[in-house]
Specification:
ATP-binding, alpha/beta, AAA+_ATPase, Metal_Ion_Import_ABC
Protein backbone atom coordinates (compact mmCIF):
# COMPACT_ATOMS: atom_id res chain seq x y z
CA UNK A 1 0.00 0.00 0.00
CA UNK A 2 1.34 3.44 -0.96
CA UNK A 3 -0.27 6.66 0.25
CA UNK A 4 0.86 9.68 -1.74
CA UNK A 5 0.20 13.35 -2.36
CA UNK A 6 1.28 14.61 -5.77
CA UNK A 7 1.66 18.31 -6.61
CA UNK A 8 -0.53 19.17 -3.64
CA UNK A 9 -1.81 22.68 -3.01
CA UNK A 10 -3.55 23.03 0.37
CA UNK A 11 -5.42 25.85 2.02
CA UNK A 12 -8.81 27.31 2.85
CA UNK A 13 -9.40 29.43 -0.25
CA UNK A 14 -8.18 28.92 -3.85
CA UNK A 15 -6.63 32.37 -3.99
CA UNK A 16 -4.86 32.00 -0.62
CA UNK A 17 -3.02 28.64 -0.53
CA UNK A 18 -1.11 27.77 2.63
CA UNK A 19 1.04 25.05 1.03
CA UNK A 20 2.18 24.56 -2.57
CA UNK A 21 3.97 21.82 -4.52
CA UNK A 22 3.67 19.18 -1.78
CA UNK A 23 4.92 15.78 -2.90
CA UNK A 24 5.53 12.75 -0.70
CA UNK A 25 4.66 9.10 -0.35
CA UNK A 26 4.63 6.61 2.49
CA UNK A 27 4.46 2.84 2.09
CA UNK A 28 3.18 0.09 4.36
CA UNK A 29 5.30 -0.15 7.49
CA UNK A 30 6.93 3.25 7.04
CA UNK A 31 6.88 6.18 9.45
CA UNK A 32 6.98 9.67 7.96
CA UNK A 33 7.75 12.46 10.44
CA UNK A 34 6.71 16.00 9.51
CA UNK A 35 8.77 18.80 11.05
CA UNK A 36 8.25 22.54 10.88
CA UNK A 37 7.85 25.62 13.00
CA UNK A 38 4.46 26.72 14.32
CA UNK A 39 2.43 28.06 11.42
CA UNK A 40 4.36 26.06 8.82
CA UNK A 41 1.16 24.38 7.61
CA UNK A 42 1.20 20.99 9.32
CA UNK A 43 -2.41 21.23 10.52
CA UNK A 44 -3.59 22.41 7.10
CA UNK A 45 -1.83 19.46 5.47
CA UNK A 46 -3.46 17.03 7.92
CA UNK A 47 -6.93 18.47 7.34
CA UNK A 48 -6.41 18.10 3.60
CA UNK A 49 -5.27 14.48 3.91
CA UNK A 50 -8.28 13.66 6.08
CA UNK A 51 -10.74 15.24 3.67
CA UNK A 52 -11.81 17.87 6.22
CA UNK A 53 -10.92 20.57 3.70
CA UNK A 54 -10.64 19.95 -0.06
CA UNK A 55 -7.25 19.84 -1.73
CA UNK A 56 -7.03 22.94 -3.89
CA UNK A 57 -4.88 21.22 -6.49
CA UNK A 58 -3.00 17.97 -6.96
CA UNK A 59 -4.12 14.47 -6.14
CA UNK A 60 -4.14 12.34 -2.99
CA UNK A 61 -3.90 8.64 -3.78
CA UNK A 62 -3.96 5.21 -2.18
CA UNK A 63 -2.24 2.69 -4.44
CA UNK A 64 -2.50 5.18 -7.33
CA UNK A 65 -6.27 5.56 -6.86
CA UNK A 66 -7.47 9.09 -6.19
CA UNK A 67 -9.52 9.36 -3.01
CA UNK A 68 -11.17 12.62 -4.12
CA UNK A 69 -14.49 10.88 -4.70
CA UNK A 70 -14.43 8.76 -1.57
CA UNK A 71 -17.13 9.18 1.06
CA UNK A 72 -16.24 10.19 4.61
CA UNK A 73 -16.90 6.58 5.68
CA UNK A 74 -14.52 5.21 3.02
CA UNK A 75 -11.81 7.62 4.12
CA UNK A 76 -12.35 6.64 7.78
CA UNK A 77 -11.99 2.95 6.91
CA UNK A 78 -8.61 3.63 5.33
CA UNK A 79 -7.16 6.54 7.33
CA UNK A 80 -7.17 6.72 11.12
CA UNK A 81 -6.57 10.04 12.88
CA UNK A 82 -5.15 10.63 16.33
CA UNK A 83 -5.39 14.26 17.53
CA UNK A 84 -3.08 15.94 20.03
CA UNK A 85 -5.70 15.75 22.77
CA UNK A 86 -9.31 14.74 23.14
CA UNK A 87 -11.44 15.62 26.13
CA UNK A 88 -15.06 14.62 25.49
CA UNK A 89 -17.67 16.53 27.51
CA UNK A 90 -19.25 13.31 28.77
CA UNK A 91 -17.77 10.73 31.10
CA UNK A 92 -17.22 7.89 28.64
CA UNK A 93 -15.65 4.62 29.60
CA UNK A 94 -12.40 3.63 27.90
CA UNK A 95 -14.22 0.85 26.04
CA UNK A 96 -16.87 3.29 24.78
CA UNK A 97 -14.17 5.61 23.44
CA UNK A 98 -12.46 2.75 21.60
CA UNK A 99 -15.77 1.51 20.17
CA UNK A 100 -16.26 4.96 18.63
CA UNK A 101 -13.65 3.83 16.11
CA UNK A 102 -16.27 1.48 14.65
CA UNK A 103 -18.58 4.36 13.66
CA UNK A 104 -17.53 4.21 10.00
CA UNK A 105 -18.86 0.65 9.80
CA UNK A 106 -22.23 1.26 11.48
CA UNK A 107 -25.52 2.57 10.18
CA UNK A 108 -26.84 5.95 11.24
CA UNK A 109 -28.68 4.69 14.33
CA UNK A 110 -26.94 1.31 14.72
CA UNK A 111 -25.23 0.13 17.89
CA UNK A 112 -21.94 -1.79 18.00
CA UNK A 113 -22.36 -5.52 17.44
CA UNK A 114 -20.38 -8.42 18.85
CA UNK A 115 -17.98 -8.22 15.92
CA UNK A 116 -17.30 -4.54 16.68
CA UNK A 117 -16.65 -5.36 20.34
CA UNK A 118 -14.23 -8.13 19.33
CA UNK A 119 -12.32 -5.72 17.08
CA UNK A 120 -12.14 -3.17 19.92
CA UNK A 121 -10.89 -5.89 22.28
CA UNK A 122 -8.24 -6.87 19.76
CA UNK A 123 -7.02 -3.26 19.63
CA UNK A 124 -6.89 -3.25 23.45
CA UNK A 125 -4.79 -6.43 23.45
CA UNK A 126 -2.52 -5.10 20.71
CA UNK A 127 -1.68 -2.04 22.80
CA UNK A 128 -1.62 -3.96 26.09
CA UNK A 129 -4.07 -1.59 27.81
CA UNK A 130 -6.60 -4.06 29.23
CA UNK A 131 -5.84 -2.58 32.66
CA UNK A 132 -7.58 0.63 31.53
CA UNK A 133 -10.83 -0.82 30.21
CA UNK A 134 -12.87 -0.38 33.41
CA UNK A 135 -11.74 3.22 33.92
CA UNK A 136 -13.35 6.46 32.78
CA UNK A 137 -11.46 8.19 30.00
CA UNK A 138 -11.20 11.45 31.95
CA UNK A 139 -9.41 9.65 34.79
CA UNK A 140 -6.43 8.63 32.66
CA UNK A 141 -2.99 10.19 32.42
CA UNK A 142 -1.98 11.98 29.24
CA UNK A 143 0.00 9.01 27.95
CA UNK A 144 -2.82 6.59 28.73
CA UNK A 145 -5.29 8.82 26.87
CA UNK A 146 -3.04 8.80 23.82
CA UNK A 147 -2.89 4.99 23.89
CA UNK A 148 -6.69 4.84 24.09
CA UNK A 149 -6.95 7.20 21.10
CA UNK A 150 -4.53 4.97 19.20
CA UNK A 151 -6.72 1.97 20.09
CA UNK A 152 -9.79 3.87 18.86
CA UNK A 153 -8.02 4.53 15.56
CA UNK A 154 -6.96 0.87 15.28
CA UNK A 155 -10.59 -0.17 15.74
CA UNK A 156 -11.23 1.54 12.39
CA UNK A 157 -8.94 -1.12 10.84
CA UNK A 158 -7.08 1.58 8.89
CA UNK A 159 -4.10 1.18 6.62
CA UNK A 160 -2.77 4.63 7.44
CA UNK A 161 -2.48 6.46 10.78
CA UNK A 162 -2.15 10.24 10.88
CA UNK A 163 -0.95 11.52 14.25
CA UNK A 164 -0.87 15.20 15.16
CA UNK A 165 2.03 15.66 17.61
CA UNK A 166 1.27 12.44 19.50
CA UNK A 167 3.72 13.27 22.30
CA UNK A 168 2.68 16.90 22.84
CA UNK A 169 2.36 17.79 26.54
CA UNK A 170 3.49 14.33 27.65
CA UNK A 171 6.24 13.75 30.18
CA UNK A 172 9.36 11.84 29.18
CA UNK A 173 8.06 8.43 30.29
CA UNK A 174 4.72 8.83 28.54
CA UNK A 175 6.48 10.05 25.39
CA UNK A 176 8.49 6.85 25.24
CA UNK A 177 5.41 4.71 25.93
CA UNK A 178 3.55 6.26 22.98
CA UNK A 179 6.54 6.27 20.63
CA UNK A 180 7.27 2.61 21.37
CA UNK A 181 3.72 1.77 20.32
CA UNK A 182 4.12 3.79 17.12
CA UNK A 183 7.19 1.73 16.29
CA UNK A 184 5.36 -1.54 16.94
CA UNK A 185 2.43 -0.48 14.76
CA UNK A 186 4.75 0.31 11.86
CA UNK A 187 6.35 -3.10 12.27
CA UNK A 188 2.86 -4.58 11.90
CA UNK A 189 2.53 -2.92 8.51
CA UNK A 190 0.71 0.34 9.21
CA UNK A 191 1.77 3.49 7.38
CA UNK A 192 2.20 6.28 9.92
CA UNK A 193 2.41 10.01 9.29
CA UNK A 194 3.13 12.04 12.41
CA UNK A 195 3.88 15.66 13.10
CA UNK A 196 6.47 16.46 15.72
CA UNK A 197 8.49 19.33 17.15
CA UNK A 198 11.27 16.94 18.19
CA UNK A 199 13.87 16.15 15.50
CA UNK A 200 15.26 13.48 17.85
CA UNK A 201 12.02 11.52 17.40
CA UNK A 202 12.49 11.54 13.64
CA UNK A 203 16.02 10.17 14.03
CA UNK A 204 14.82 7.41 16.35
CA UNK A 205 11.49 6.32 14.92
CA UNK A 206 11.08 7.47 11.31
CA UNK A 207 12.02 6.11 7.93
CA UNK A 208 11.43 9.48 6.27
CA UNK A 209 11.29 13.11 7.34
CA UNK A 210 9.44 15.94 5.61
CA UNK A 211 10.49 19.48 6.53
CA UNK A 212 8.01 22.32 5.92
CA UNK A 213 8.98 25.98 5.58
CA UNK A 214 7.54 29.08 3.89
CA UNK A 215 4.50 27.33 2.45
CA UNK A 216 6.30 24.41 0.88
CA UNK A 217 8.67 21.50 1.33
CA UNK A 218 12.12 22.51 2.51
CA UNK A 219 13.35 18.95 2.06
CA UNK A 220 12.12 15.36 2.24
CA UNK A 221 14.08 12.14 2.54
CA UNK A 222 15.85 9.94 5.05
CA UNK A 223 16.18 11.64 8.46
CA UNK A 224 19.97 11.36 8.39
CA UNK A 225 20.07 13.13 5.03
CA UNK A 226 17.61 15.98 5.57
CA UNK A 227 17.83 16.76 9.30
CA UNK A 228 21.06 18.71 9.54
CA UNK A 229 22.37 21.56 11.64
CA UNK A 230 21.76 23.88 8.69
CA UNK A 231 18.18 22.72 8.09
CA UNK A 232 17.27 23.03 11.78
CA UNK A 233 18.68 26.56 11.83
CA UNK A 234 16.62 27.46 8.76
CA UNK A 235 13.42 25.88 10.11
CA UNK A 236 13.53 27.06 13.71
CA UNK A 237 16.04 29.95 13.74
CA UNK A 238 18.03 28.12 16.42
CA UNK A 239 21.69 27.12 16.26
CA UNK A 240 21.81 23.39 16.92
CA UNK A 241 24.55 20.82 17.29
CA UNK A 242 23.73 17.28 16.12
CA UNK A 243 25.71 14.78 18.17
CA UNK A 244 26.34 11.12 17.40
CA UNK A 245 26.00 9.35 20.74
CA UNK A 246 27.79 6.12 19.81
CA UNK A 247 24.77 4.17 21.07
CA UNK A 248 23.38 1.58 18.68
CA UNK A 249 19.76 2.26 17.63
CA UNK A 250 17.11 -0.04 19.01
CA UNK A 251 14.68 0.43 16.16
CA UNK A 252 14.89 -0.68 12.56
CA UNK A 253 13.33 2.58 11.39
CA UNK A 254 16.56 4.51 11.70
CA UNK A 255 19.36 4.05 9.15
CA UNK A 256 21.99 5.54 11.46
CA UNK A 257 24.92 3.52 12.75
CA UNK A 258 24.39 5.24 16.08
CA UNK A 259 21.72 7.42 17.67
CA UNK A 260 21.78 11.15 17.01
CA UNK A 261 20.52 13.86 19.36
CA UNK A 262 19.95 17.56 18.75
CA UNK A 263 21.36 20.07 21.24
CA UNK A 264 20.28 23.72 20.90
CA UNK A 265 23.14 26.20 21.26
CA UNK A 266 21.12 29.41 21.39
Amino acid sequence: MVFALKNGVCGYAPNKPILKDINFDVSSGEVLCILGANGAGKSTLFKSMLGLIPILNGVLTVDNESIAGWSRAEIARTIGYIPQANNPPFSYSVLDVILMGRTAYLGLFASPKKEDEEIAEDAIRQLNISRLVDKRYQELSGGEKQLVLIARALAQLPKILIMDEPTAALDFGNQQMVLNQIHKLSQNGLSIIMASHFPDHAFLYSHKALLLKDGGIYSVGRPNDVITEESLRDLYAVETKIINTGIQPRYAATDASDIKICVPLS
